[in-house]
């Protein structure tokens, strides 16, 4: 199998200083926004956890908020990107299994839940790829 050359404009874009950071920021944005919203509306975060049937809701809401914000902060660093990616990936898998069990739905609800479930699977894949990319750049430097 031969390597296909990256078109020059794409190569330039990928080589821009900070491009990898902006890509990781985009990937972390749902976690950051959700964590900030939970921090500023902790009552709503607790109600969301209660709605999933989890207890103690306040403690779990605090853990979720810390996980989203702390995992994102680590993911945005070069040194601990792998750790942040892992934290966010494990969180995403657990939250997706709890909040989007598509196999328990019927009709159009099943379709929406299935799509959301696999969108979250894609986020987990993106987190893994970002961690691999950052790790390869660190080992080459």
Considering DSSP H and I runs of 4 or more, what fraction of the residues is helical?
over 70%
Share of β-strand residues: under 5%
Count of strand segments: 0
SSE order, one letter for each helix or strand? HHHHHH
Main structural class:
mainly alpha
Shape field? globular
Mean pLDDT: 94
| Domain unit count | 1
Number of contiguous helices: 6
Distance between the termini: 27 Å
The whole-angstrom Rg is 18 Å
Low-confidence stretches: none
How can the largest sheet be summarized?
Answer: none
What does this entry look like structurally?
This protein has six helices and no strands. It is mostly helical. Helix 2 packs across helix 3 and helix 2 (19-40) crosses helix 6. It is globular. The mean pLDDT is 94.
Topology:
Elements lengths: L7 H8 L3 H22 L1 H10 L5 H19 L5 H19 L7 H34 L1
Helix pairs in contact: 2-3, 2-4, 2-6, 3-4, 4-5, 5-6
What key attributes describe this structure?
141 residues, mainly alpha, globular
Please give a quick description of this structure.
The chain has 141 residues and is mainly alpha-helical. The chain contains six helices and no strands.
